[in-house]
Each structure stands twice: as C-alpha cells, then as structure tokens.
Write a structure and sequence with these properties.
The protein is of the alpha+beta class. The protein folds into 2 domains: about 90 residues, no CATH class; about 150 residues, DNA integrity scanning protein, DisA, N-terminal domain (YojJ-like (1). The chain is about 55% helix and about 15% strand. The chain is built from 9 helices and 7 strands. The chain has a 7-stranded mixed β-sheet, with helices on both faces. The longest helix has 29 residues.
Length: about 260
C-alpha cells in the first residue's frame, strides 16, 4: 500500500517535468521564427484545456476538443517549413562525436583568428564554417575537397581575389580544412539589414539549418562577424573572436 502511494505521488511529478521539458525544447526550436508566437498561443490553449477539464466545464471542453482537432492539420500546413527543417536536422548529427584535444583546438582557433585579422586588414572578404555537431558533409560535397592542415596562410590564399575558390565558403571539420568554394543556403529572412551582403546571408542561412560556427569577414567594412544559431556577433577584434569561437565549440549542443 505504501509503495502504491509513493508511485501515485511521483508519477504526476515526472509527467509534469517531461511535459515542461518538451515545451522548453519546442520553444528553443522555434526561437527566432514566425512559429514562436503561434506556439505560445497553443500553450495557452493547452493550459486552458487542462483547467476546463479540472473544473468540468462541458461546453468549453467540447469547443477546445474540436479546436485541437482542426489545429493539428493547420499546424502541419502553416509550419511545414519549420517541421521539415527539424526532421532534416535529425539526420545531420554525427553518430559518434569527434573531439579534438584542447591544445589542437587552441592551435586551429589561433590560425583562423590570425587569417581573419589579416584578411580584414587587407579588405578581403571571407566566409568560414566550423562544423560542430551537425554534419556539413552535404555542403562539403558542393565545393572542392581540400583536406589540409589548418593554417592562416592557406586560409588567406583561398580567399585571395582571382582564386577560383574565393567566392564560396570554407569548411573546417574535424580539425581540418575540409573543402573550399562551398555553396551555403541563403537565408529567407526579410528583416536582415541591407548592410549585409551575400556572405552574411549565406552564413545566416547555414546557421538556420545547422549548429555550425560561421565567421564572416566583410571586404566593404573590414570587420569580422560571427554567426551562431541565427545570432550575430559583430565587429569582433582578434581576442574577442578567439574567445567566442572557443566558447561555442566547447558548449554542448543541447544548450
């Protein structure tokens, strides 16, 4: 009897914890999209539904039951792009996580930072994607495979004008310069400032689909930006860029 009472007490607590965790993950998934406001409205309706059930409001219960039945179809239609993106991202995870030693991370971050500083000083543009947890294999295949040790000189050479690869993106994966001249998806975000060019739009587009750390050097403004999960970090100096990359690469993807 005592065991049954204990189970009756902890089961609701576990169910509530799981429910709130799922809601939290949904909020993170839709953050920065047009679906976020609608999701909040759905959560309010769900809470109202639970309250109506608790107090046995028959008519209101009936109305919300019908509303939820219709809303499932509406959600699938309205948010098909977000749902497709979420399902696609499930297939982009590495089965086994590849980790570098801390000293190796420091070395390649120093080389990337040095290259970006030199490119900015010389008013040369660059777009660099550093793979984190989501695989960038499909984007690597869109460019030319390099598979070389990371060095500032090689990065600068790739983004030198008249180099056939300088217009595309450079991908760093598993501690190597994997490919150059890669094509990234352009963001469909209409609110992005006109100050940002194609490189920034490509970086934002890739950040909408993966958890890659994107670095953009602007040839017009000679500044360095970092984009991660649709968030911009602008006008970064060398030390700031180095610190930000290191923090993001060391942070688990489940933040």
């Amino acid at each position: 009897m005592l065991t049954d009472n204990i189970i009756l007490h902890w089961k609701p607590a576990v169910e509530i914890a799981i429910l709130w965790f799922l809601i939290y993950r949904l909020m993170l998934f839709f953050e920065g999209t047009r679906a976020l406001q609608a999701l909040r409205g759905i959560i309010v309706l769900l809470l109202a539904f639970l309250i109506f059930q608790r107090f046995d409001f028959i008519v209101l219960n009936w109305l919300l039951n019908k509303l939820f039945g219709i809303s499932v179809i509406a959600i699938l239609i309205i948010f098909q792009a977000e749902i497709r993106q979420g399902l696609a991202s499930l297939g982009k995870r590495h089965l086994f996580r590849y980790s570098l030693k801390e000293e190796d991370i420091d070395i390649f971050i120093n080389q990337v930072t040095l290259a970006c500083e030199n490119l900015a000083q010389n008013r040369l543009g660059a777009l660099i994607a550093v793979e984190k947890t989501d695989s960038l294999a499909e984007y690597i295949h869109s460019g030319e495979v390099v598979d070389a040790r990371i060095s500032a000189d090689l990065i600068q050479a790739i983004f030198t004008p008249n180099n056939p690869l300088h217009d595309g993106g450079l991908i760093i994966a598993r501690g190597r310069l994997s490919a150059a001249g890669c094509i990234f998806p352009l963001t469909a975000n209409q609110e992005l400032s006109r100050l940002f060019g194609t490189r920034h739009r490509a970086a934002l587009g890739l950040s909408e689909e993966t958890d890659a750390v994107l670095i953009v050097v602007s040839e017009e403004r000679s500044d360095i930006s970092l984009i991660y999960r649709k968030k911009f970090y602008r006008d970064l100096g060398g030390p700031q860029l180095k610190l930000r990359i290191k923090e993001l690469l060391k942070t688990d993807n489940d933040e």
